[in-house]
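Our working data are protein records whose layout never changes between entries. An example says more than a description, so a record of this kind follows.
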Amino acid sequence: MRRTLVTALLAGVVAATSISCSGAGDTADTPPVAHPCDIPATALTEAEIALQPLMTEPFGTEFSGWDGCIWKSTAGWYDAAVYFGPSSLDEFQQDPRYQDYRVAGPAMAGDRTALEFGDALDPDRKERCYFGVELPQGMALIWSRLPVGPGGGAAVGDICAEGERVAEVLSSYLPE
């Protein structure tokens, strides 16, 4: 009787575990993340981003109050980041704190409309490229850049194409 009860309990645990894990790798119904650093490892791998973040907060005083995460690409020649901020895309464009960021044109981040930005230090977007996506409570800023300081170097490809590709892969994890 005791062996039958233990066997039945184990069978129930195994069944419950297999049911709850059956969709673990399915990104079609993946819930959005609350913080950029919570983007799942599978998505980072698909976006060709190293799993260990370089920084777990935004870089730049203008992004005070934002959440952010910065990673190295697996290609090694650029960094990628995702920031969540309280400003809408319209507010971002009008706020004097962000005056160095200028709209370069419309873009897509997966199936979401976005705006591509350049900055005052690199208006031609050869070293840095930004994609803004409207969120229910603010915006996401997804960017790619050549690393600064030791280890920085020349672009091996199109920095905006890499940023757009990263934005496309990670867009399904942004809050809707």
Remarks:
- The first strand starts at residue 67 and ends at 72.
- Strands lie at 67-72, 79-85, 101-109, 112-119, 128-135, 138-145.
